[in-house]
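Hi support team,

I've been running sequence recovery on a batch of backbones for a student project. Most finish fine, but this one hangs at about 90% for roughly twenty minutes before it completes. I'm not sure whether the input is malformed or the queue is just slow. I've pasted the structure tokens below so you can try to reproduce it. Let me know if you need the job ID as well.

Thanks,
M.K.
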């Protein structure tokens, strides 16, 4: 069962979310951050959240600015705003009496939850799935547009048949974001999940994240999985691993 919610982003527009609810009493609560332009209803985000709910962990997943059912213009967003809005989602849940102890992030969202944990005192554990060590890794998605953006300030960016606007401030923001220091000073339990055969974000990123982190830290290889976790049972498996690992930190 999922509960529809809306909450204000850090820049004003309302963000649309779903809270996947456990059937019985919740073991704990989490916020999930989706990949680059994927949205809360992407297979990875949806399946992970639903499986965590089956495991007794309630999860808020939400569309970032200008994506899915959320208001605003995606072009006004950035990595820093994604981080801030993830922290805002935690605040929204905490205010509702659903204290968030766990952050889960897929791909670009994995980098975002590591950074967002620093802004949320209630969070005790962070799980990243296929996350890049450097946020600027997303440039491979739009490298053909870089010259035009640098010259004109923005360019249309086609994603799944939808035209978004990619602006210079987004590029400058990801290039200026230092995740290494945020990993080193995380002071929360960290679980790094990554497929050794991930052709989108190579597994070397997981090694760099793990090496930069301090204990308690854990690494799990999602053998056979693709980056988007589209294979049968891949997302559910990742969620079951996260559920078991996070158990000591949920209460």
């Amino acid at each position: 069962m999922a509960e529809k919610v809306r909450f204000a982003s850090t820049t004003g527009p309302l963000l649309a979310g779903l809270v996947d609810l456990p059937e019985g009493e919740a073991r704990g609560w989490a916020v999930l951050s989706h990949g680059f332009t994927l949205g809360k209803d992407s297979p990875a985000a949806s399946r992970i959240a639903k499986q965590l709910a089956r495991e007794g962990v309630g999860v808020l997943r939400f569309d970032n600015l200008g994506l899915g059912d959320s208001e605003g213009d995606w072009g006004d967003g950035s990595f820093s705003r994604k981080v801030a809005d993830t922290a805002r989602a935690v605040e929204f849940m905490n205010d509702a009496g659903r204290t968030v102890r766990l952050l889960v992030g897929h791909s670009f969202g994995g980098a975002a939850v590591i950074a967002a944990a620093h802004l949320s005192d209630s969070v005790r554990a962070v799980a990243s799935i296929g996350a890049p060590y450097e946020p600027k890794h997303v440039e491979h998605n739009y490298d053909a547009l870089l010259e035009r953006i640098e010259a004109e300030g923005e360019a249309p960016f086609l994603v799944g048949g939808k035209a978004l606007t990619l602006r210079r401030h987004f590029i400058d923001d990801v290039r200026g974001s230092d995740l290494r220091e945020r990993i080193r000073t995380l002071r929360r339990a960290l679980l790094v999940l990554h497929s050794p055969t991930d052709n989108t974000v190579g597994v070397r990123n997981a090694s760099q994240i793990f090496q930069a982190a301090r204990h308690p830290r854990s690494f799990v290889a999602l053998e056979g999985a693709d980056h988007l976790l589209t294979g049968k049972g891949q997302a559910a498996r990742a969620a079951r691993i996260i559920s078991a690992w996070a158990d000591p930190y949920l209460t």
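--
Follow-up from support: It reproduced on our side and the slowdown came from queue contention, not your input. The beta strands are 2-8, 14-20, 28-33, 57-62, 100-106, 125-129, 154-159, 162-167, 189-194, 217-221. No action needed from you.
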